């Protein structure tokens, strides 16, 4: 009887104590042809099995977000393996499910390109990602200026 009571107390306490999940942050910026920022976004995602899984999840979210704004997109990343995955998906069988989703999303874009940009060349997106990681609850933002 005592063990059952302790077990029930543990379950009740588990439901009321907020344990912050582990999040990884991502940020993106959409610039027009003149280099002026039009939109930006940030989101924290639950950490995935590997950083590469998180990068794929972030790309998926950015693509889904941009479909409604433009069908011609050039995407940038500071993760060279992500570019290799998009260009040669057959070489990455452990990511086949995620890559199939990315390939399907690509169909919505008349023009799609992904290029390498060092993190130092995209400081606003990097700042958005770093700030997003500090939140211990779900966060998703898309807007025209940096959130306060």
Automatic annotation (TrEMBL):
It holds the Pfam family RVT_3. It comes from the Eukaryota. Residues 24-131 form the RNase H type-1 domain. It comes from Brassica oleracea (Wild cabbage). GO terms for molecular function: nucleic acid binding; RNA-DNA hybrid ribonuclease activity. This is RNase H type-1 domain-containing protein.
């Amino acid at each position: 009887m005592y063990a059952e009571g302790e077990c029930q107390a543990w379950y009740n306490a588990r439901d009321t104590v907020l344990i912050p999940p582990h999040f990884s942050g991502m940020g993106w910026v959409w610039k027009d042809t003149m280099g002026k920022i039009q939109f930006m976004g940030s989101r924290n995602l639950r950490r995935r099995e590997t950083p590469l899984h998180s990068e794929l999840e972030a790309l998926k979210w950015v693509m889904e977000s941009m479909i409604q704004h433009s069908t011609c997109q050039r995407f940038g990343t500071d993760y060279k393996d992500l570019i290799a995955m998009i260009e040669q998906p057959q070489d990455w069988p452990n990511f086949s499910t995620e890559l199939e989703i990315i390939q399907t999303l690509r169909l919505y874009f008349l023009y799609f390109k992904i290029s390498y940009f060092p993190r130092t060349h995209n400081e606003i997106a990097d700042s958005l990602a770093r700030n997003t990681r500090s939140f211990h609850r779900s966060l998703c933002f898309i807007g025209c200026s940096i959130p306060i």
